[in-house]
Design goal:
The chain has 60 residues and is mainly α. It is built from three helices and no strands. The N and C termini lie far apart (40 Å).
């Protein structure tokens, strides 16, 4: 996965899978850098895609 924003649900799923594989990356390793980039991309996607989700779910 390249260092671009996540724009689709499929790319989001792929990023989550990659994060799982990198979760125990050694400190200061290239894998840790990749993990941090993936987490930031996932957080940005989720903020865009799921913002207000709880409000919509609780409104009657």
């Amino acid at each position: 996965m390249e260092d671009t924003p996540i724009r689709t649900a499929e790319k989001h799923r792929q990023a989550l899978h990659q994060i799982e594989g990198l979760w125990h990356a050694a400190r200061d390793s290239p894998d840790e850098v990749r993990l941090e980039k993936l987490v930031a991309a996932v957080e940005a996607y989720e903020a865009r895609s799921f913002s207000g989700w709880n409000d919509k779910q609780t409104q009657g």
